[in-house]
Specification:
Largest sheet: none
Keywords: Membrane, Transmembrane, Transmembrane helix
Strand content: under 5%
Number of strands: 0
Order of helices and strands: H
Transmembrane segments: 12-33
Length: 36
Amino acid sequence: NVNSKALQNASSVGLIAFLFLLDLFQAISHTIVAGL
């Protein structure tokens, strides 16, 4: 099924983006804590 394949691709891209943002957020918060 083409739809399930597209849905799988979209969810994996979303997961990668979520993990990237989470990592970025942690880096920013560490920088803020270090600056205080």
